[in-house]
Each structure stands twice: as structure tokens, then as C-alpha cells.
Design brief:
Low-confidence stretches: 1-8, 450-457, 516-541
CATH class of the largest domain: Alpha Beta
Keywords: Kinase, Transferase, Two-component regulatory system
GO molecular function, one term: phosphorelay sensor kinase activity
Domain PAC: 216-267
Strand content: 15-25%
Largest sheet: 6 strands, mixed
Number of domains: 5
Strand order of the largest sheet: 19-17-20-21-23-22
Protein name: histidine kinase
Domain PAS: 141-214, 276-338
Number of strands: 24
Number of helices: 18
Length: 623
């Protein structure tokens, strides 16, 4: 059976009035579909309430004096069923307006004005409905971001720029610090009382550096209320606006177990056969987690840090920020292959940088298990290729920012644009609240982006029904008069969020690049799949069909549009590539998601002559 999704700008209004003033022929302002208003009219409150029980209603226009009860009594009955549904009350006198609004009415409108200007009445209820819908979306987005943070095992937090206000903290604070979230919100400085007295000065200095615009990564001890002592590693990132640090975002985690193993391993790995202090080059040793466990005097001399400072610092903090990812990758390579070499700038205590070349090898125990990595670093003159490496690093950062803009900012900009139109037509404090909600969403995106830059992407695979995730994507991507055919009932093992991002970008790619006069598709070649058809009317593309189907070891997304030229197919997954206007990162995102899952993707011509993307190597899950 075909599922049909109504356009987002279509509203259903219930009119309760023995002298109705609205009809479906009303003209909306320019840019509005005149058929976007659906009316159901009744002259009795009882029948209106019955209709409300069985039908989805976006808003109500009601007379103040109905045949079977007063308008305000009717509103009371509505509020017993739905506390937020927009209700516009037609009033004869302005004297009752204030009392009506304070008793559950969303807004009031003069009947005399409505008689003369039905278009103003229709536009008023439309604005109330859109404000309600925008508020619901903002509330749902805020709730989802909070739920996402609560799924993390790490303590995530957001402070004001001067550390005097806690703007967000997840419940992991209670597990790590043994204190309640409410107590921290009441006293944002509470966490400082838990820090070991010998570490407090160092932590306070780090906080001052973050407030001045510097990112920090440090380790310190805390004492919980029951006397238990734990080690904590905290990373903090400043959010800067016009040169001022307005917020500080960060993450903290418990590293007590790692510290315990480090202490035990110092004796285990110490050997008279390794006179590391006699080596003129830098010597380092990392534990199985990649953290600094041992070093020689040359490292302390080269960095200007005392041994006590080095013991509490993260390895990456010893390098220039632009080289930290290179260091991480080099260490990972040493763990995986047994050896690695890389070049990076060492960051000294006074803030200067010195170019070094590092080599490292894996340390294994007698039973073959990995104990860590050890190696040396040798100072070198800055190579000519250093500038090129920095340029490549900047290109990667620019590409990352473009991806974020492509997938997160565009929908928010659309919402802001619609809000501006509503503010031009109607001056309301409710719309100001929506604007603040949009700004808050933008802030949360910035904060999560800052955390993501310092985190590691990890897959959270689970069984995901393809049909469900595609239908969800179809409601969020602007598809116009495009038809969707689902030819699969498969359940795959994947990260749900990234799989949804994959389909959103493939669907958007077909809509943006595949628009063409309708081409009749060939019939199915014997596949026995669940098939549904879905269509929307939003004006983005016409006469186009997108098909999502199943392969023996994966799935495909195809369309009957203009297709992709054969000589261009090898280039479509490159960042910035586009056959039409736009950032050209959609298919690059798809390629990255496919690669992260360990799948493969190819592009070919569909049976109808359009584009067909095949994703293979997918693991199916029993339905």
C-alpha cells in the first residue's frame, strides 16, 4: 500500500462558527500556495470536539459565542485534550481579549476585521500554526541533543566564558564526581572542591588559559565525597565570538585504571640494559593506550617541562595543534604494523615549536601481547615540504567545515528564512521566542562540533530496517514532486545515524542532479520485495522516481533522471565535485560513511538511464 506524506506547508484548520468567515479560496501572501488551507467547519462545540478526537488538526478558529456553549468554555474543553494546539478566538469586543488569552486562548481576532479581510484572518491562523510547529521542532531537536549527550560515557559540559555559570552538564558528572548535577548547577565552582589540593593550582591556571582563548588537555586527581580518589583527564575548548570567549565546552573521563597500570609497568619495564638517559636523542615509551609512560632527560630538556608535569600531560599536548592528528595516526600505525615514522613540531613550555622526526616500534610481551610503543625523536631543520603539509592540513579542516555546513546548517538556514517572512507579516513575541530557539540550536551545533574535533568517530552498529530509515529521510529532504519506490524489507547492521545521513545525501543528489521529463521504468526482474510508493509536493523536482532496492550483499539507490556521464563517475566522490550548483560534498560524505562501515560503493547507469549507486559488502540481520 502506498504511503503519502502531506506537504509541510499544508495546514488543516477546524472552524467552529455558526457564521463562518473562512473558506478555502482565501489568498495567502506571495510565495504561499493558495490551496495550502484545508477547512472543516461546524457550528457546534460538541461536534467540533468529536472531530478533534478522530482527526489531526493544526489549528482552530472559534466564535466567542456558540450555540451550545461559550467560546471560552469550548477552549477549556480543547485544552483538556491538547494544551498546545493553536486556538484563535473571534471576539466582538477588545475588552475581553486580555481575559481570553490568559484563560487558554492562543490569540484573539476582531470579528469586524475578519468580515472585511478574510485573508488577514487566514494569515493569522497560519502564523499561529507555523509558530507552534517551529516551537515543536526546536523542542524536539533540543531534547534529542540532550538525549545524545546522555548516551555518552564521558562527562560532557558547557561553562560560560568566565566559569561562573554551568550551561550544560550530563549525568555522567554524578558517576565521576559523586555529586549531583543539581548541586553543580547551584554552585558552578563545586567541582573545584573535589580536586586534590596539590593539583588545584595547575587546574586553575589551565582554566585561566581557556578563558583567554587557549585549548587545554590535562590530568588531575579528585576525591569523591566517600573519600575515594580518582584520576581524571579533561579536555576544554573555548568558543570565541568577536574575540571574546563566550562559552567553554569540554569532556572529562576517568583514567584511574590507566594510571594504576602505568605505576605497575614502570618497574616491570625498567631494565639496566636500557640506559635511556645516555641517549642524546629524545626517548619515549607509551603504554598500551598510547599514553606517555616513560621518557629520558632529553625530552624534559627539549620541552622545558618538569618530570612531574610530563607525568600528567597528554601525549598530544607536547605537539603543535596542527600536528596532533599526525602524531595520533603515527602512533596508531606503530601499534598496528609494528613500526612507524613521522615528522611533527614539538611544543615547548614557552610556546615555541621545534621540528622533530620520530620513529617508533611496538613493544610485545613474551606471550605476544602488546605492551606499548617505544621510540626516539631527532631534531631536524624545517623541510621545504613543511608549508605543503600545513596547507594539506588546512584543506582537510576546510573540507570538514564544509561537510558540517552541508548537513547541519542548511536546514537551520531554511527555518530562519521562513521565520523572517513570518516576522515581516506579523509582530509577535512568540516569533521572537522561535528566533531565540533557532539561535540556541546553532549554538549547540557549534558546541558539539568543537567536541567532535577532539573526539574519535566510532561506529555504533545495530540492526536497522532500510524501509524505516529511508521513509524518515524522505520527510526531511526537500524532494518536490518526486516519487519514491521502496523495493526492500531488509534489515542491515549499521550505525543508524550515519546510514540515515547516507540516504539523505543520495536522495538529495538525485533530486538536485536527476531532474528530467518522466521516463517509464522497466519492470522488476523477478525480485520478491516489499514495494511502496511515496510522493511529496514541495517544488524541488518533477517527474522523477527514486528507487531503493536490495542486492545479494547490499542495497542500491537509483533514479530515472539524466544520469551521470561515464567519464565523470570516477570523480563524483571527490570533495567539492558537483554537476550542478551547490557545495559538492554530498557524495563525498556518502563515500566516507561507506568506507567507515567497511562497505564498497560503485556508480553505474540505472535500468531507466539515470544514476544508480550500489553499496555492497553489507551485513544483513535477521528481520
Amino acid at each position: 500500500m502506498a504511503d503519502t506524506y502531506a506537504p509541510a506547508d499544508s495546514i488543516h484548520v477546524l472552524q467552529v462558527d455558526d457564521t463562518p468567515l473562512l473558506d478555502e479560496t482565501v489568498e495567502f501572501p506571495a510565495g504561499r500556495d493558495p490551496d495550502s488551507l484545508t477547512l472543516t467547519t461546524t457550528d457546534r462545540a460538541d461536534s467540533a470536539l468529536e472531530h478533534l478526537e478522530d482527526n489531526a488538526i493544526d489549528g482552530i478558529v472559534a466564535a466567542d459565542d456558540l450555540s451550545d456553549r461559550s467560546g471560552r468554555a469550548f477552549v477549556d474543553a480543547v485544552r483538556e485534550r491538547d494544551s498546545n494546539l493553536p486556538v484563535l478566538l473571534l471576539i466582538e469586543s477588545e475588552s475581553v481579549a486580555s481575559n481570553a488569552v490568559s484563560n487558554g486562548v492562543t490569540d484573539v481576532f476582531s470579528r469586524d476585521t475578519a468580515v472585511e479581510r478574510g485573508d488577514l484572518l487566514a494569515n493569522r491562523i497560519r502564523l499561529l500554526v507555523e509558530h507552534h510547529q517551529s516551537t515543536e521542532i526546536a523542542s524536539r531537536t533540543r531534547r534529542q541533543l540532550t538525549e545524545l549527550a546522555e548516551q555518552s560515557n564521558e562527562l560532557l559540559w558547557v561553562f560560560s566564558g568566565d566559569w561562573t555559570e554551568i550551561q550544560f552538564v550530563n549525568s555522567a558528572y554524578e558517576t565521576l564526581y559523586g555529586r549531583s548535577v543539581e548541586s553543580l548547577q547551584a554552585d558552578p565552582a563545586e567541582f573545584m572542591t573535589a580536586i586534590h589540593h596539590t593539583d588545584q593550582e595547575r587546574v586553575m591556571q589551565a582554566m585561566q588559559r581557556v578563558s583567554a582563548g587557549e585549548s587545554v588537555d590535562l590530568e588531575f586527581r579528585i576525591t569523591k565525597p566517600d573519600g575515594e580518589q580518582r584520576w581524571v583527564r579533561a579536555e576544554a575548548q573555548p568558543i570565541v565570538d568577536d574575540g571574546t570567549v563566550i562559552r567553554i565546552v569540554g569532556a572529562s573521563r576517568d583514567i584511574t585504571e590507566r594510571k594504576r597500570r602505568e605505576s605497575e609497568r614502570v618497574t616491570e619495564l625498567d631494565s639496566p640494559d636500557a640506559p635511556v638517559d645516555a641517549v642524546p636523542d629524545l626517548f619515549y615509551e607509551l603504554d598500551e593506550n598510547g599514553d606517555l609512560a616513560r621518557w629520558n632527560d632529553a625530552l624534559a630538556a627539549a620541552t622545558g617541562h618538569e618530570d612531574a608535569d610530563l607525568a600528567s600531560m597528554a601525549l598530544t599536548a607536547l605537539f603543535a595543534p596542527s600536528d596532533r592528528e599526525t602524531v595520533r595516526q603515527g602512533i596508531e600505525t606503530a601499534f598496528e604494523t609494528g613500526e612507524a615514522s613521522f615528522k611533527a613540531d614539538l611544543l615547548t613550555a614557552d610556546g615555541t615549536t621545534v621540528p622533530y622526526e620520530f620513529t617508533g616500534g611496538r613493544i610485545t610481551a613474551a606471550d605476544g601481547s602488546t605492551l606499548g610503543v617505544a621510540g626516539i625523536g631527532r631534531e631536524i631543520s624545517p623541510p621545504d615540504s613543511r608549508q605543503q603539509a600545513l596547507e594539506q592540513q588546512n584543506e582537510r579542516l576546510d573540507e570538514f567545515a564544509s561537510v558540517v555546513s552541508h548537513d547541519l546548517r542548511n536546514p537551520l538556514d531554511v527555518a530562519r528564512g521562513q521565520l523572517e517572512l513570518a516576522q515581516i507579516e506579523h509582530d509577535s513575541e512568540h516569533l521572537d521566542a522561535v528566533e531565540r530557539a533557532h539561535d540556541r540550536i546553532g549554538q549547540l551545533i557549534e558546541d558539539l562540533l568543537s567536541l567532535a574535533r577532539n573526539g574519535e568517530a566510532a561506529l555504533d552498529s545495530e540492526p536497522v530496517p532500510l524501509q524505516t530509515v529511508v521513509e524518515q529521510c524522505w520527510q526531511t529532504v526537500e524532494t518536490g514532486d518526486v516519487t519514491l519506490e521502496l523495493r526492500t524489507s531488509a534489515v542491515v547492521r549499521a550505525d543508524p545515524g550515519r546510514l540515515r545521513q547516507l540516504f539523505e545525501n543520495l536522495i538529495r543528489n538525485s533530486v538536485e542532479h536527476g531532474q528530467t521529463p518522466h521516463t517509464e521504468k522497466q519492470g522488476d526482474t523477478g525480485e520478491q520485495r516489499v514495494t511502496t510508493s511515496i510522493s511529496q509536493s514541495q517544488g524541488a523536482a518533477t517527474d522523477l522516481t527514486i528507487t531503493v532496492g536490495e542486492l545479494d550483499d547490499g542495497f542500491y539507490v537509483a533514479d530515472d533522471g539524466v544520469g551521470i556521464p561515464a567519464d565523470e563517475r570516477e570523480n563524483v566522490f571527490e570533495g567539492g565535485y558537483s554537476l550542478a550548483s551547490g557545495p559538492g560534498f554530498g557524495l563525498r560524505i556518502v563515500d566516507e560513511i561507506v568506507d567507515t562501515h567497511g562497505w564498497s560503493i560503485t556508480v553505474a547507469e540505472s535500468d531507466a538511464g539515470g544514476a544508480r549507486f550500489e553499496i555492497t559488502g553489507v551485513e544483513f540481520d535477521a528481520a
